Give the backbone structure.
Amino acid sequence: MILVLESGNLQSLFDTLISEKYQIIGPTLDNSALIYDEITNVDDLPVGYTDEQDGGRYRLVKSGGKKYFDYVVGQHTWKRYLYPPEKKLFELKRKGDGFEIVENKQEIHKRAFIGVRACEIEAIRIQDEILLEGPYKDADYERCRQNIFIVAVNCVRPGGTCFCVSMGTGPRATKGFDLAITEIVDNSGHYFLIESGTKAGEKIMKEIKGKEADQNAIETADRLMKEAENKMGRRLDTDDIKELLYRNFESSRWEVVAQRCLNCGNCTLVCPTCFCINIEDISGLEVNSAKRVRKWDSCFTLDHSYIYGGSVRTSAKARYRQWLTHKLASWIDQFGMSGCVGCGRCITWCPVGIDITEEVQAIRESEGKGKIMADKEE
Amino acid sequence: MAEIQKNKKAIGFKDDPMMPRQFMIQRFRRDTVDTFSMELKPVSGPKKFDFKPGQFNMIYVFGVGEVPISISGDPTRPEKLVHTTRAVGNVTKAMDSLKSGRTLGVRGPLGTSWPVEEAEGNDVVLVAGGIGMAPLRPVMYYLLAHRENYGKIVLLYGARTPSDILYQKELEKWRSRLDLEVHITVDRGTGSWRGNVGVVTNLIGRAPFDHLNCTAMVCGPEIMMRFSALGLQKRGVEPADIYVSMERNMKCGIGLCGHCQMGPLFVCKDGPVFRYSDIKEIFTRREY
């Protein structure tokens, strides 16, 4: 089922989701920054804002337009809600010579994510694979992942650091959504083309104030998506990338990038697929209680690889190499897929503008087999 | 990297593998100045703790933290869970101050195991360095319980000083057996030590085993395992017949936290026991 929804009727989607008891999480502005937070009204969306992104640079700009989704991704990712930065797993109480575990009973929100980009859907799929499909599951992730309704937004205007086309993840959402929206402004007005991907999506579609899409709207959306593919801010040549990085373990390029890398870990915190966590066991002040907390961690810290006697990866070079090689190469061996979705966050939010696509290209060229990116363009 | 041993689900968890099971310390024994052994019994649930030699548990000290510790007891006597630990960090030092009757959290058994079944019919060479003796002791128990299935059994063990030698009484017993070859060396001979002095790799050259039908299991510091593997290869042992046990930072033990990565491998679920030929490049790579 494909519908056209006039821009003025977008609220009916919100209202339907709310009446179905969904808590809506979507893009909104907070202190002039784009974040993902609870919203209830279309006016909570950053209407009329667009973004400028480049290595180490992010600016939200008032475009004066009326579009609801005229920006791409910010520093937040959906893992904030599925695999939160800090989560109490359980509490313990001392009892005699032993202890008892008090399970962390919590209500599970029925949540609707609005404005999920194609690259982010792939990122969620990747985390599902890691946290749910291995020999062991993360029980808390499984709880949070249940009852998530995904409203995808297709990227008509890719950002300056985007390279989803290179990673095969976007700009159009093709699976993994309940509803997918394309925002269109053309001669016939400002409207949304909405398609459903699941039964749950169809159920919601029946309730919103749309009309059946005509061929013109469908073709316009197709054309816009085709055009978007050619507007990627970055490109990454993934040809033979696993072997390329494996055989360049000793590349001198790692030294070069390490001179700029601050080892701050920003790239890992904004990455929608990075899954490293720390387990902290914390004692209460009164000594009779304790809790276990799961927190985001980063392979850029010395503690990450610490064992008695010292850290395994002591140099900045080794830690950057670990991050990039894991993301683009060893991830493939571990999970049968790349760890990169091409969202560009690590480039935008790197304080010194280190660019993952540039680093891979530099390594490629250092082998004397570099291909000019332009040649790869269709 | 070649095939990875498939891991089985650990027992004793509820539906959440991050939840520890409670075990009570039955006996606490000091082995050396910085090393101690604990015998643990489950507070509730199944009384047996089945494990394979080489597997480990995540051990939790109330309010302090959790660390991966190899199991060093007898796999043919699963009613007793034994851990030998060196007190070097916050958690292991806190563990060292516990007495019998106190309770610990246990998650496991986790990880891959030594190839004791694959080694049947072969000579078996165990090379242990320092605390690396602890994860190999279950192999000794297993081999002795199934003695007729193996050829020669050789244990080569190196410690820092004579007083750092673990399981001294047991070693004496094993040394007096005619069907075992036990050779011990120390880095520094002190007091009345009249045995070998030098690194454990020195013992490999003259150890009596058939290099063509042999399975070697090596555990100790990385540098010691590297040179032991080289020494074994010099004797003609194939790299595919050598096994090592790796150590990395671990927070979860179940392949989710990311800390124990060694290239594409997770030491907690793909290891800790690896076939040397699968991972030998790790020993020559710095900061991998």
